[in-house]
Design goal:
single chain; about 350 residues; alpha/beta; Metallo-beta-lactamase, Chain A; seven-stranded mixed β-sheet; 10 helices; about 30% helix; binds zinc ion
């Protein structure tokens, strides 16, 4: 269906259920007011780490088996999967294993669309030589199914690494909205704050999303000594410009890299027809994310002159991934399961 067709379709749906439009517009106004009224001062004692490794454990794309760069610079004791020939699962979800000096964090826990046990996340972690027992902390970017381990978890306000029992060590889970978990010590992050040495949350930013309601999303800020701030993003619902502005306000330090979901499903959705083009972009349902907006985001990133941009394919189409690549050149890459990024 073309844009006119969608406009007519949604006008009819809107007429049938006008309150859905009214409540969306109300949520959107509230979110705008919240953004305008939130004052942020820089954290004084953020500190830094000397080495950050980001290893995608769930992503839309996976590193090829012949990829010699997959899992380079491994810690001692972990096997290199590019040699083992292990199959790495892919899905339209996000989970990144972060190693921040000697600590291991899990950023989001994937989608597990088929409610499997072991989940794609657990299978990939094992193939990559890791286990949930290695974790020191979990960071959940926002309460959407592709980040909390499935639709049921989203509905229940929880998160899970797999559809069956998972042995977790005593750890803390930082979440941006009220959530619960049977094992983890859940801490709701309500404002920008330091979480560990050199690690902070942007604090939750609200975006009104059609059909799904307002969503609070926070991003992780890691200060790598000698480089600057690396921002790890889940879906990017708050918009890239606001996330960057918040990162700068929270840290008052130069931004070195942006890694994660930026939500540019311009030419197609990863989750069924229309899905991400309509849901998640903060617009009315007949309005799409345009090529011009993606081009503006690419130009914005180019102007920031970052050392690294790594974009998730879980909520950006191939056209957008190609656009970022062409505008940013060698500094830009597409995130792939098993392909480690090291900043040190
Ligand atoms: Zn997402
Ligand atoms: Zn999302």
């Amino acid at each position: 269906m073309n844009d006119k067709g969608w406009a007519v379709y949604w006008a009819l749906v809107g007429l049938a259920k006008p309150w859905t439009i009214v409540s969306f517009l109300r949520d959107r106004r509230r979110a705008e007011r919240e953004w305008a009224e939130t004052l942020v001062s820089p954290l004084e004692d953020l500190g830094s780490c000397s080495r950050l490794s980001v290893l995608p454990a769930v992503e839309y794309y996976a590193a090829g088996k012949d990829s010699s760069s997959a899992r380079r610079d491994l810690s001692a004791g972990h096997e290199d999967p590019s040699d083992s020939g292990e199959h790495l699962a892919t899905e339209a979800g996000v989970s990144y294993l972060l190693r921040i000096d000697d600590k291991t964090w899990l950023f989001d826990v994937g989608l597990n669309a088929r409610h499997e046990h072991p989940s794609p996340l657990l299978r990939n972690l094992e193939a990559l030589g890791f286990s949930p027992a290695d974790l020191d902390a979990i960071f959940i970017s926002h309460l959407h199914l592709d980040h909390v381990g499935g639709p049921e978890e989203m509905k229940q306000g929880s998160f899970s690494l797999s559809a069956g029992p998972v042995e977790l060590p005593d750890l803390v889970a930082y979440v941006p909205t009220v959530m619960r978990h049977p094992q983890a010590r859940v801490e709701v992050v309500t404002a920008p704050r330091k979480l560990a040495e050199g690690v902070a949350s942007t604090g939750p930013l609200t975006r009104a999303i059609w059909k799904m309601g307002p969503i609070q999303e926070h991003s992780l800020l890691i200060n790598v000594a000698g480089k600057g701030i690396v921002m790890v993003v889940g879906c990017g619902h708050p918009t890239l410009a606001r996330l960057v502005a918040r990162a700068k306000a929270v840290t008052a330090l130069p931004l070195y890299g942006v890694i994660g979901g930026l939500h540019f499903p311009v030419t197609g959705s990863r989750v069924g027809k229309g899905g991400q083009n309509i849901i998640g972009n903060g617009k009315l349902p007949w309005q799409r994310i345009t090529r011009r907006e993606a081009e503006a985001a690419a130009a914005f990133l180019a102007d920031l002159d970052l050392g690294l941009v790594a974009v998730s394919g879980h909520d950006s189409c191939d056209w957008s991934l190609g656009l970022f690549q062409s505008k940013l050149g060698e500094r830009c890459r597409t995130l792939q399961v098993g392909k480690e990024i090291v900043i040190a």
